[in-house]
Amino acid sequence: MNADRIAALSGAGVAVEVVAQTGSTNADLLGRAASLPAPVLLVAEHQTAGRGRAGRSWLSSSENSLTFSLVWKFDGGPQALLGLPLAVGVMLGDALDRLGVQVRLKWPNDVLKDGDKLAGILIETQSAPGGGVWAVIGIGLNLIMPDEVEAQLGRSAAGAPWLARMERDVLMAALLDALAAGLRQFAQHGFGAFCVRWNLRHAWQGETVVILDNGAVLHEGRAAGVDDTGRLLLDTEQGRITVMAGDVSLRVKA
């Protein structure tokens, strides 16, 4: 992949960097955020220590996936970022739609294709000198899912062979454009501008689900979408409740 070509193909006006290998693009940008003057996209052709939520590892290879992080500065404190992982899911969903790949969203940060995980989102933050907060938005997108990788994961996962046939620089530029436009909208209007679109893509709308914390069931109920701050709405026997993301997990009840 070529950073100059991605930047030239994109209309986002964001600096682009490509490295052959690194541990984690999120960790790299977090370490630099305090000194950055503007947003940066960092693409790794191979990550050796990619991470998902709750410290889970993300398996990737340059042939089979796209791994990158985008660091973006927001005014205000952490409260200004409520719902950002879900909004990024909407941005990705809209971009993938335009590229011919139909996806659904799983609360709070997974992109699904045919019921299996196609992409994951990890957002980490750091206070900005002089005010505001830097958000490092890490994304891992499966392009091809070989049998041996599924065996390592211990579960099925989705691929998008159509995207794998695209020129990588063109694909990355299209995703960058969608993310940059969406992040500017989020900065102005918050998750409220994305809530309806998220609910339209909700993979488990109306399904009976359980909320787990370290394997223990915290709540059970019927998934009813999300509210305009990104909280999951769950209709339980005791009535409707809201669930914040944190490190809990969501599963369809077996």
TrEMBL record:
Enzyme class: ligase
Reactions mediated catalytically: biotin + L-lysyl-[protein] + ATP = N(6)-biotinyl-L-lysyl-[protein] + AMP + diphosphate + H(+)
Known EC number: 6.3.4.15
SUPFAM superfamilies: C-terminal domain of transcriptional repressors, Class II aaRS and biotin synthetases
InterPro entries (UniProt xref): aa-tRNA-synth_II/BPL/LPL, Biotin_CoA_COase_ligase, BPL_C, BPL_LPL_catalytic, Transcriptional_repressor_C
UniProt KW keywords: ATP-binding, Biotin, Ligase, Nucleotide-binding
GO MF, one example: biotin--[biotin carboxyl-carrier protein] ligase activity
CDD domains with a match to the protein in the record: BPL (cd16442)
NCBIfam families assigned: birA_ligase
Descriptive protein name: biotin--[biotin carboxyl-carrier protein] ligase
